[in-house]
Amino acid sequence: MNILLLSAAYPPKLGGVATHVSNLAHGLLKQKIEGWDKNFVYVITKSDEELDFYKRKKIINKNPALKRGRLQIWGIRVKDIYTGRGSPFNEILSFVLENWSSIKPEIIHVHDYESAFIGWLLKSTFNIPLIFSVHRAPTNWKDYKNEESAKDCFMEVMKLIIAFDRLVVPSLASKQVLLKQGFRKSKIIVIPHGIHYKWMHSLNKWQSSQEDIEPIEQIIKNKEIKLILCPVRADHHKDPMTFINSARIIKEKNPDKKFFFLLTGESNQYYDLEGTATRCGLEVGKDIIFKEFFFKEMPILYRRADICIIPSPRESFGQTAIEAFAFRCPVVAANSAALPEIIRHKENGLLFNPGDPEDLAFQVQTLLSDPGMVKNFVDNAYDVLCKKYSAEKMVDNYLKLYKKVIVERWKKKAALRGSALT
Fold first, then answer.
1. Nearest to residue 10, comparing CAs of 39, 38, 51, 40?
2. pTM score, two decimals?
3. Residue 271, domain member (yes or no)
4. 167 vs 367: CA distance, rounded Å
5. Are the CB atoms for 45 and 75 separated by under 8 Å?
6. Residue 321: which domain range?
7. Would you say 249 and 368 are in contact if contact means Cβ atoms under 8 Å apart?
8. Which residue in 27, 48, 127, 145 is deepest, having the highest Cβ count within 10 Å?
């Protein structure tokens, strides 16, 4: 089966969408479904440079058929627009059309709104089934919400024209939002994310320069320091402010302990966060740091961290939670959106009231004071990861969905031919 994945993000970029698409792409190579011999996966994403990520060099010949391997990852450079983001429509659509005869996908799977529009055009032109994975953080739907957000407006259009064969969401929380928005229940499928947790354990090297990483290496080597990790972007809806304010409380309540608070992820808001931390009495670089890391560096941080905090009140799934599960790092997360579907309070982690730094600090204090509880949580979390959130399970669910929508399309074509003959 030839599978075309379109995504705005892919490693080495961090983020839930990037890591999810990577886990899916690599997992599809290892599994197959009845009726197809092997899976060939084409990932087309946007990049700062026009790169063939599979070979890590500039593209010389744009024809994917001339490249070796069943997984071909193509980073297409896009032109900047006034917002600072790329506008991939023209460049990526042109690239796909130029190489359509080589890719010959039997299914198109898109992972963001811009890619969904491209996928819709391709489906309309070539009559190929279209799967749209909606990764957006869920917010309560209300009438006329589409007037407030371009993405909500886009989803209203998708709902009206039924541009996809299935919408895939990673959680029941996300599904409920789409149902309230008016999407057909039969079109929405819940497939939780999964990770290659065994492969992640093989990642143990820094990619950053020695100058950038040396201070953190010192923290990692000093076991006396309690490392509190917050593996989220600094975007407002991730609520990094609650993490910072709780860091101040945790430090004040534990004067006999050494703490280091670390927030990861790409953002242009670090300057504001550093100012907030300073006003809270935290010394940036000594008590707390905000820094972007490479995809392959994150396992080291999970492995070393004493606690992983996920403060976001709006998560469509919570990929960082299961990544922490993989390294037996105890998780404290906001009791909102999809996070309670993964983290069961006092079973495999702890939940706190969203936006409440006092409650977050209390839950962290609970873990710090009870090593036995930590061991019980991380054992249960790892068991849940293996049973529910492995990449193999996720890929198996996607392959079943791919086959279902392809067979539906075959039957529809046959019915149309039959009616034409009569």
1. 51
2. 0.87
3. yes
4. 38
5. yes
6. 207-388
7. no
8. 27
